[in-house]
Specification:
Elements: H1 7-11, H2 17-35, H3 42-45, H4 51-70, H5 78-94, H6 102-116, H7 123-129, H8 135-152, H9 163-176, H10 184-198, H11 209-223, H12 229-236, H13 242-260, H14 267-281, H15 284-289
Length: 305
Amino acid sequence: MLFSTSTQRKFWIFPSIDEVRNLRNEANSEFINKIGIKQLSEEEARYLLTPHQEYKLSLAYEYEIKKFCMSFPTPLPSFVIATSMIYFKRFFLHNSIMEYNPEDIMITCIFLACKVEEYYVSIQNFSSYCKLMPKEACEKIVRDNELLVMLKLHYHLTIYKPYKAVDGFLLDIRTRCKDVKFNFERVQKIALEFIDRSLHTDVFLLYSPSQIALAAVLHSVHREGHNLDEYVLTILLHDVPQETMTKVIEQIKKLRKLVKHQEKINRNEIADIEARLRAFKATTTWRSRNSQFDGDSQDSETCMD
């Protein structure tokens, strides 16, 4: 299957950052309506998270995904980490972090990514590598949530990533642009670092893997002191209409800007958000109504405590 005909292209690439934010706002509103805002006391309502607070907390957990994956005796490869993070992004694009325990979803996304990417790790080994909780608890989380995560992702599990395209662009540049001299390994490393940073933004919900790869390569080669405008305009886009060319160039600029200005994580702010979330989960209304929901019903310390 090609990216152009994939579920990723059809269902998970959105036309603007505003639409992505609107989806998060809707997920937040739907949960609040579901629990019944009128049923909450004034004290309970003050603990509800805003959409932006939910986003900041999910962003913090994306860093925890990477930390978890790197803690294995043999760290999980970048393509598994990327798939895990994209699953996590997609899950909380349509679901509230107030309803589903982010640590449980994080662990499940990582295990599911290992399976989908055919990087075999048994549930026994996976849970034994987990340093966040006892082995049996980790196994139970995966078993309880794996089908839920797949359902919420609409079983759209194949993720196209930009890693191979980066190497393709670099080889093409080295072949066609004889005047552009660079150290392949160093430029490749910088490009992969760019992709790594992009995983902590909404780039993978807005752009195709080839666009992300091109932006990464332009960034890395520019860092080495070269300008690739001629390559882009006269080789890559030489046979496309001017309007399309202008649109592509503008998209790449926006993509690079998103990565450059990625939102930073403030640990004190995250701690405050988590405290609010724990306080909400401790309210009488949540405890009395929790059995109605699909979300996690257990109070648990998070991996960032």
